[in-house]
Amino acid sequence: MITVEHLVKEFHVFERRGWLRRRTRLVRAVDGISFTITPGELVGYLGPNGAGKSTTIKMLTGILVPSAGVVQVNGRVPWRERVAHVGRIGAVFGQRNTLWPDLPVADSFDLLRHIYHIPPDRYRANLQEFRDLLGLDDFMGFPVRTLSLGQRMRANLAAAWLHDPDIVFLDEPTIGLDVVAKEHIRAFLQRVKLERGTTVILTTHDLADVERLCERVMMIDHGQLLFDGKLAELVERFGGERELVVDFAESYADVAVDGATVTQREGLRATYRFARAKITASELISRVSARYRLRDLSVREPEIEATIRRIYEQKLL
Amino acid sequence: MISHYLKLVSGVLRSQLAYRTAFIVDVITVGMSNALEFVAFALAFAGFGHIGGWSLWQVAFSWGLSEAAFGTMDMIFSGFDPARFAQHIKRGTFDQFLLRPVGLVTQIFASDFALRRLGRVAQGLAIFALANAGAGVIWTPAKLAYLPLVFVGAVAFYGALFVFGATLCFWSTEGLEIVNLFTYGGTTMASYPMHIYTDVVRRLFTFVVPTALMIYYPALFFFDLPDPTGLPKIAQYLAPLVGFGVLTLALVSWRVGVYKYQGTGS
Questions:
Q1: N or C: less crowded end of chain B, CB within 10 Å?
Q2: How many domains does chain B have?
Q3: Which residues contact B23 (CB under 8 A, 6 or more apart)?
Q4: Above 90 in pLDDT, residue A243?
Q5: What's residue A94's pLDDT?
Q6: Could you list the residue range(s) of the whole structural domain that residue B175 is in?
Q7: pLDDT, tens digit, 9 for 90 and up, residues A43-67
């Protein structure tokens, strides 16, 4: 159970003015966020770069101490009871390694068994399951430093769940991975969620991650919580619009079509925006190609970052 | 805590020893380069014969003791070596320590154990043993009991300098040369009889950064020499106390650094 009330984090940022002078500016990375997460939820924590996601996660894991507000994780204040708190959570940071770089994966796991006091039977059972689920056998004996990004991510994920944590924080776990690797990781997370009911907080830029895994999403920008609710609702309200980019075979004065708005025109290219709920892509394509001759087309999904920027800039929330 | 340390350190050691040839070459090189430093000094010394009334053997005695202690410290405290620790702060990998259910100080100690520094320890011990023969120290039970305490005190003291250096990293990861001044400079300085320095320098290294209390004053006790600096006799027996006292101070300051890190991020 995670409770956050009016959480604030301010940083003094140094600005250089000229050669010698420096000025401090107070930046509110997290500006009064409140939410509750109940056990077993898999929550997507979304927002553009610099929104305050990592800062929030750092406060929940106990790395940072807030400027104001309350954080309670399973009845503990993270930074006050660091060792006890950290022993019950797992964390994986995309692009950063949580294991010992020069040691073989197996040795790292053994170290973890020791420091997290994992009972031997739980350790064996978990290890076996993760080896199967994540295909670790291929590289168990190699130093973590020598692994590819995908392999390292798989090892880090196994490591995060090895001690049966109550909560796992995932900060961009699929970043930089190829499509197949991403799928494997999503499959792993789904499986683990089903079987173990671990509470998971997932930070990601990848909408596909969110669509696949999260029922609930929280959206943050400029340190403020803009949305907290079902993903379906968010997509419906803001992500429901997609784009169809069309290259016409000839020049047309007017390319209007029912059910979509023309947002851009440049030479032979036009961009239509249409709402997911009102019309499907294939239907729109039919309508357009019925009226005009096409040479090429593509359908663009809304990027979550663009959606969020739009939400914030247009004050849609 | 100890078991966690041992377990973590064994991992570090295993990865160092994985490259066995490189390791052995390392140890020998370190030992030789430090020994050569002393040889260079001895050659220069030969021209003078005595320095502040001390013979070459007596200086070598201090040198060997200081080197062996510093090398030992360098092995054990290498996780706190500011040069290494700064990397953790710079790269953000310090966060990983905060995420593990083990005490922070234990983890930093266990994050490295530079076995290759054995070269420096060996060389220090060798020179100390040789010097002992020539310095003509009259060993009493009291002196024999005090020697290991002086050694351990020096290890603690030099360790404290590393820890202070690591603490500075929480505020700035640049400009740490000043720490080197006290660590590497300090151990060289500790080898020479303190009374050859001017008053100001001597007082600085007796009362502010008490390097003198760690090797020089105990040496006066070992050599049964009168104190030319006029301090009370008790100054010669304070080494272990001062060493661990300064180390405690350093570790407290390090905790303040951690507190600052958690308040302001990296």
A1: N
A2: 1
A3: B16, B17, B115, B116
A4: no
A5: 80
A6: 2-264
A7: 999 887 888 999 999 999 999 999 9
CA angle A33, A39, A43 (to 5 degrees): 50
Predicted structure pTM score = 0.83
**B213 exposure class (CB count in 10 Å sphere: 0-12, 13-18, 19+):** buried
Count A/B contacts: CB-CB distance under 8 Å: 60
Order the strands of the A68-73 sheet from edge to edge: A21-37, A2-17, A68-73
SS3 string, chain B, reads: CHHHHHHHHHHHHHHHHCCHHHHHHHHHHHHHHHHHHHHHHHHHHHCCCEECCEEHHHHHHHHHHHHHHHHHHHHHCHHHCHHHHHHHHHHCCHHHHHCCCCCHHHHHHHCCCCHHHHHHHHHHHHHHHHHHHHHCCCCCHHHHHHHHHHHHHHHHHHHHHHHHHHHHHCCCCCCCHHHHHHHHHHHHHHHCCHHHCCHHHHHHHHHHCCHHHHCHHHHHHHHCCCCCCCCCHHHHHCHHHHHHHHHHHHHHHHHHHHHHHHHHCC
Binary contact (B14, A58; C-beta < 8 A): no
- Which A positions 171-230 lie with beta carbon below 8 A of chain B? none
